[in-house]
Amino acid sequence: MVKFLIATHGDLASGFKSSLGIILGKEMADLVETVNAFTRDENPKEAIDNLIASLGKGDQLVIFSDWMNGSVNQICTPHASEDKVYVVTGANLPLICEVLGDMGGAARVSENALRAAVDRAKNEVRYVNDLFRSSEHLGGLTDEDSFF
């Protein structure tokens, strides 16, 4: 079974999980474990290592971390060499929603689906002011026009 972990600095992981509950529903959000590093007495390395150690023989784990060069991702990165662990960093809400929507409840991770989701999520990071100025993207919306 595919399992999910969001590991971040501070309470961002719990915030992502809360948002997942609103967008995808509580049942999907409940598939996600969180590590809110450096916020409580919990040692993030120990928490991540313990979760990975608890995986069953057929289980796989997708880890979302917040920052490529951050300490939390540095804890996760060594596990990427394990066949059953997949680490995705620079996570944002659209990425996590897409992967959970595709793989929540699935038996196996699709690495191609992970790669495609990462590529699409990169396009979600935008400087909106430029979009409003650009007739190429949104027809040069004004503040009187509806964005949606």
From TrEMBL:
PROSITE patterns (UniProt xref): PTS_EIIA_TYPE_4
Signal peptide residue numbers: none
Domain of life: Bacteria
Any Gene Ontology CC annotation: membrane
Keyword list, A-Z: Transferase
Gene Ontology molecular function terms on file: transferase activity
PTS EIIA type-4 domain sequence ranges: 1-125
A biological-process GO annotation: phosphoenolpyruvate-dependent sugar phosphotransferase system
Name recorded for this polypeptide: PTS EIIA type-4 domain-containing protein
Provenance organism: uncultured Eubacteriales bacterium
